[in-house]
Design brief:
- The structure holds two protein chains of two kinds.
- Chain A is of the alpha+beta class.
- Chain A is 29% helix and 42% strand.
- Chain A has five helices and nine strands.
- In chain A, the strands form two sheets. In chain A, strands 5, 6, 7, 8 and 9 form a five-stranded antiparallel β-sheet that branches. In chain A, strands 2-3-1-4 form a four-stranded antiparallel β-sheet.
- By secondary structure, chain B is α/β, with parallel strands linked by helices.
- Chain B has a six-stranded parallel β-sheet with strand order 3-2-4-5-7-6, sandwiched between helices. A six-stranded parallel β-sheet of chain B has the order 11-10-9-12-13-14, sandwiched between helices. Chain B has a six-stranded parallel β-sheet with strand order 16-15-17-18-20-19, with helices on both faces.
- In chain B, helix 3 packs parallel to helix 4 and helix 15 runs parallel beside helix 22 (532-544).
- The longest helix of chain B has 23 residues, at 355-377.
- Classes of the chains: A alpha+beta, B alpha/beta.
- At the A-B interface, helix 1 and helix 2 of A face strand 6 of B.
């Protein structure tokens, strides 16, 4: 029986060392898994970094991947979560020619979506929005057809779990001394 | 931090003395108890070699003839001693030549530290002469790796390297050191590493899992054990034997579990896997409880997973949590060091025997003996079989040689027919299947256990993959016994071509040079045997020689290894012919 693939958010807490990204991505590569998005940043603990990967795979594979990730010397803990177990946000920036600033379409978007202008120059202005993937897709699909988009960029995901995931406590348990 | 402090700094005078990073490397190795290493010099590692010159008395460096040879020699040394093997090479090609050995050590859990030179830090990324991103290249095949760009990092990083390589599930570590860091002067202070906060070498023992396992074992009517190298790596041989003798469970070894139990132990039912014994493969699909100890359910062991031990409850003892449920779904996982977990389970199992069940293994062995083993030991043909050679080696060594086998038919015959009395007596490239492994690994093995007979068994193909290491034997005068089983074919591939590719022998026929002349040129005593009546005496002469010895045996060209589980077939569909 083929197991269904679904979107998982994989959070990995690691030491902050050169080369760790390579080591983590190699584990996905080895199993031929494409990384949909990735965010790296400092975590809530000093000198501990958090990687957030979004991948599509089966739960069996997700479990195995977690095992392989946690096996890495510099990985402190790794977790996988389904979409309904997390609260997540992504950010996107839209760069648009200033001549469209007062277009009705743009003004409507700014009014009704959680979007706002970050900067305005003589030539262009930049809109920022934050939301789940679909929110950003919607805004993009609204603006794109008018041919006014000069540049568009979206971030990877940042996520927080609904269930308790007290990584600090786990870390303390790891480092009893 | 509860680390044990070990100061290697010589002076206590007010004026702190400094040493170069290169010398610090040597002092770290000495502090870790390294007295033997393998390597090959070159530009980017020259400062370390220069310092090594002054420490030759304490730290013996063996110059191999290729960096791959250095890596395999370090592996061979590690496998027979249980200590960390050390190999050193220069940047670029020196480093990349180590990679096969590193990958081999990774998949076979061999403790090894590799040190590579790197171009000066200001040149990193500039495509400098002999620059290669060995950290990037070696990442997927190392347990850990690190690039040192400052001499001050050397003591701490090397301490970590040795701790990581030898602790938990062992593995290879690569440390890349830029040339400027080797020249830079530091005040040297060494502290052994005993813990790393993000790394738990041995999982916490969970007694409830041990109890659950004991319950299953105590109720089992037809239990079977499959044990791997974990028993050897944990130095758990004694408690393992106590455990099986108390529980009376028939026990099969994997390729890497070989010699953890004496061959002639009454509960030893032989080898599982593609060319393993008939009984343990067949009865894997009849047992009611399958107890896996320190093994990882490799595809060569399980065959088709959908038909592997489906009727059995599976208990898996392992030190590596990532191995649990990786290939075979377990009912009870017992995480921990085998020495500890086996001690606990032994207390909880009831004394038992399974004579009727054990008899089934014996009955199936009788079939295998009649159909396969006897024919291979006493063939009707004029051509010699590999089995005959192994039998003579068993006789001449009282079943107590260290057998270092290569890859292919020679390996399968060696592992099927060699007999063992003590642990750490079989060294082979299991997971990676690296042809060319045996000759350099045997050099390392002999240096690790100089008082034991070490016999390298290889085919004519594998021999020529690292044939240059005869030069290392020549220079070191190490008394390795080198046996080439020459069938003028890449035998295992040829066997598959015969069985599955309509005998289309694409690129498996070998026109070989005069190996005796070559070995003679390298100063080994030599003998070539092609007739049965000369075999016993030739092996006897080789084993009695105090020097390195080269024995070529001309083997029947188209002999096959059986039994065999064809790829994708079930273990119970094992073929006898």
């Amino acid at each position: 029986m083929e197991e269904n693939k679904q979107v998982y958010t994989i959070s990995v807490y690691t030491e902050n060392n050169v080369g760790i990204l390579n080591r983590l991505s190699a584990i996905f590569l080895k199993r031929h898994i494409n990384i949909e998005s990735m965010t790296v940043s400092k975590s809530e603990i000093d000198n501990v970094h958090r990687f957030t990967f979004v991948v599509k795979l089966t739960e069996t594979n997700a479990r195995k991947i977690i095992g392989q990730l946690e096996k890495q010397i510099e990985v402190i803990r790794a977790f996988y979560h389904t979409e309904d177990e997390i609260i997540y946000q992504e950010t996107a920036l839209f760069k648009i020619s200033t001549e469209h600033l007062y277009d009705e379409e743009i003004q409507n978007k700014l009014k009704f979506r959680r979007a706002h202008i970050v900067t305005i120059t003589e030539d262009y202005f930049v809109i920022e929005t934050t939301g789940v993937k679909e929110d950003i897709d919607k805004l993009y699909n609204k603006i794109k057809p008018y041919g006014m988009l000069l540049q568009f960029v979206r971030s990877g995901r940042i996520a927080i779990t609904r269930p308790k995931m007290a990584i600090s406590e786990l870390l303390a348990e790891f480092n009893p001394a | 931090m509860s680390t044990q402090t070990q100061t290697v700094k010589k002076t206590s005078s007010a004026k702190a003395t400094t040493i170069s990073g290169a010398e610090a490397v040597i002092k770290c190795l000495l502090a870790e108890g390294v007295d033997l290493m393998y390597g090959y010099p070159g530009g980017a590692i020259m400062p370390v070699y220069d310092k090594l010159y002054g420490y030759q008395e304490q730290l013996h460096h063996v110059l191999t003839r290729h960096e791959q040879g250095a890596a395999h020699a370090a592996q061979g040394y590690a496998r027979v001693t249980g200590k960390v093997g050390v190999a050193m090479a220069t940047s670029g090609p020196g480093a990349t030549n180590l990679v096969t050995g590193i990958a081999d050590a990774q998949i076979d859990s061999t403790p090894m530290v590799c040190i590579t030179g790197q171009v000066a830090s200001h040149l990193l990324g500039s495509d400098a002469f002999q620059e290669t991103d060995i950290i990037g290249i070696s990442t997927p095949v190392t347990k850990w790796n690190y690039q040192i760009t400052k001499a001050s990092e050397i003591p701490e990083i090397l301490a970590k390297a040795f701790y990581i390589a030898r602790s938990g599930r062992p593995g290879p570590v690569l440390i890349d050191i830029t040339k400027d860091a080797q020249f830079e002067e530091i005040e040297f202070y060494y502290k052994k590493c005993t813990s790393i906060r993000s790394y738990r070498a041995i999982p916490k023992l969970d007694m409830s899992s041990v109890k659950a396992a004991a319950e299953l074992i105590n109720k089992a009517k037809k239990p079977m054990i499959v044990f791997g190298q974990g028993v050897i790596l944990s130095k758990a041989e004694v408690i393992f034997k106590t455990f099986i003798e108390k529980s009376g469970i028939p026990s099969a070894w994997t390729l890497l579990g070989l010699s953890a139990l004496p061959t002639d132990h009454p509960l030893n039912i032989g080898m599982v896997g593609m060319h393993g014994n008939y009984a343990p493969n067949k009865l894997t699909n009849e047992c009611d409880v399958l107890i896996a100890i320190g093994m990882r359910f490799d595809d060569r062991v399980t065959g088709d997973l959908n038909t592997y031990a489906k009727q059995a409850k599976v208990i898996h003892f392992d030190i590596d949590p990532a191995e649990i449920d990786k290939n075979v779904k377990t009912d009870v996982a017992v995480l921990g060091d085998a020495k500890e977990t086996l001690a606990e389970i032994t207390k909880l199992v009831t004394k038992n025997t399974h004579d009727k069940w054990l008899q089934k293994f014996k009955d199936l062995y009788a079939i295998e003996y009649k159909e396969v083993i006897e024919k291979s030991m006493f063939p009707d043909n004029e051509g010699l079989t590999m089995t005959e050679v192994l039998e003579e080696i068993n006789k001449a060594s009282n079943n107590d040689a260290v057998i270092v086998s290569d890859v292919g038919q020679n390996q399968m015959f060696a592992c099927r027919y060699a007999k063992f009395t003590q642990s750490k007596s079989s060294v082979t490239s299991g997971g990676l299947g690296t042809m060319g492994f045996a000759l350099p690994a045997a050099i390392g093995a002999k240096m690790g256990v100089p008082n034991r007979e070490v016999v390298a068994i290889m085919g004519d193909g594998g021999f020529q993959m690292n044939i240059q290491e005869l030069g290392t034997i020549f220079q070191t005068e190490i008394a390795v016994k080198v046996v080439v089983l020459n069938n003028s074919f890449l035998g295992m591939v040829r066997q598959w071509q015969e069985l599955f590719f309509d005998k289309r022998y694409a690129s498996t026929i070998m026109d070989n040079p005069d190996f005796i002349k070559i070995a003679d040129g390298y100063g080994l005593e030599t003998q070539k045997v092609s007739k049965r009546e000369n075999l016993a005496a030739a092996v006897e002469t080789m084993m009695r020689s105090k020097k390195s010895y080269f024995l070529e045996v001309v083997i029947e060209q188209e002999d096959n290894v059986f039994p065999m589980i064809p790829t994708g077939a079930s273990v119970s569909d094992i073929r006898l012919s």
